[in-house]
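VOC domain-containing protein: structure tokens wanted.
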Amino acid sequence: MIEVDHIDHLVLTVHNIQQTCSFYQEVLGMGVQHFEGGRVALRFGQEKINLHLLGHEIDPKAQYPTPGSADLCFIVTSFDDVETTLKAQRIDYKGPVARSGAMGPITSIYLRDPDLNLVELSIYR
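Answer:
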């Protein structure tokens, strides 16, 4: 049996790579990394999110790559500035609400990225 340790990266298919990079960089503080051949990824912690432009995905790819189909949960280091930052950026959000994370109870706020992917910002209670 294969034993999985952790997720290394995932892929988001997007309508506009620059707009996606701006959102994740300016709102969530992620870094942007450029690779040979024009590939782009978002970096945070020890993970990354590869970005594929709709209609120009890199093979192999998901069977049905679609912008707006992801539901992502990010654990934040502090919840103090989440609502303040979202209000300052004029980003609509819902929460905070109590949820259950992979390692126990979390408090979450939900918002949407430019492709309407659901983004959950959470902290363990």
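The beta strands are 9-14, 31-34, 40-44, 47-53, 71-75, 94-101, 104-112, 118-124. Helices lie at 17-26, 82-88.

Cheers.
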